[in-house]
Specification:
The protein is α/β, with parallel strands linked by helices. It is about 40% helix and about 20% strand. The chain folds into 2 domains: about 1-120, Rossmann fold; about 125-220, Winged helix-like DNA-binding domain superfamily/Winged helix DNA-binding domain (Arc Repressor Mutant, subunit A, Orthogonal Bundle), CATH 1.10.10. The chain has helices at about 10-20, 35-40, 60-70, 85-90, 105-120, 150-165, 170-180, 185-200, and strands spanning about 1-5, 25-30, 45-50, 75-80, 95-100, 125-130, 130-135, 140-145, 145, 205-210, 215-220. Helix 2 packs parallel to helix 3 (about 60-70) and helix 6 (about 150-165) packs across helix 8 (about 185-200). It is globular.
């Protein structure tokens, strides 16, 4: 899962980035509205955390431009005021949710996960692919009831495939889900992580299939 944080308060941004990285999210961070608009026009994200008051372009204008481009990425607005006018402004601009500063870490993470579930259609308590389970609330994988221990980037790739199971996911899409703006994307790295995931899933009926020239697909090989 890859998020974009748009926040001009450096101390708060640092805290949020560290918090979400501990939750196994890949996260990019920019500090002004113009930079956010430019990045959002070029990159794909699972959720955007957008401060409503920003230098160089306010959050509502960033959001308005995003929606005019037809981008339906879930947007969580960060606002310093809990007034009815601010709430109305957030939703009128096309926001999916909002959180009032200062906010609790658990609330922020819970709201992000709720937006991801809503966007992916994963409204059930568990997603299943063969004998592999994914729990959206905790973002945990289980194989036959036993937690599947994965490294952060392995988790990111398997999560991306699980949320789109049965559909082809291109290598480019996997790279976008895993690498941040500060990192150099590597197609070879995707091959390495897919190889590792196949080892983790060697005893599972959920399998990752390569569709040459197209990407990868997660599906069950159960014949029942």
């Amino acid at each position: 899962m890859k998020l974009l944080l748009v926040e001009d308060n450096a101390e708060l941004a640092h805290w949020i980035v560290n918090l979400l990285r501990r939750e196994n999210f890949a996260i990019d961070c920019v500090s002004d509205g113009e930079s956010a608009d430019r990045v959002l026009a070029a990159q794909c994200y699972d959720v955007v955390l957008l401060d409503i008051r920003l230098p160089r372009m306010d959050g509502k204008e960033v959001l308005a431009r995003l929606r005019r481009r037809g981008d339906k990425v879930p947007v969580l607005m960060l606002t310093a005021h809990d007034s009815t006018d601010d709430k109305v402004d957030c939703f009128s601009a096309g926001a999916d949710d909002y959180v009032v500063k200062p906010f609790d870490a658990r609330e922020l993470v819970a709201r992000i996960k709720a937006l991801i579930r809503r966007q992916s259609g994963a409204m059930s308590a568990c997603l299943v692919c063969g004998d592999l389970e994914y729990l959206p609330d905790t973002r945990e994988f289980r194989h036959k009831g036993t937690p599947l221990i994965l490294r952060p980037r392995e988790h990111t790739i398997l999560e991306t495939l699980m949320l789109r199971q049965g559909k082809t996911v291109s290598k480019v899409a996997l790279m976008e889900s895993m690498f941040t703006l500060d990192e150099e994307p590597s197609a070879d790295a995707i091959d390495i992580y897919i190889h590792r995931l196949r080892k983790h899933l060697c005893m599972s009926s959920a399998q990752i299939t390569t569709l040459r020239g197209l990407g990868y697909i997660l599906r069950s090989n159960d014949t029942a």
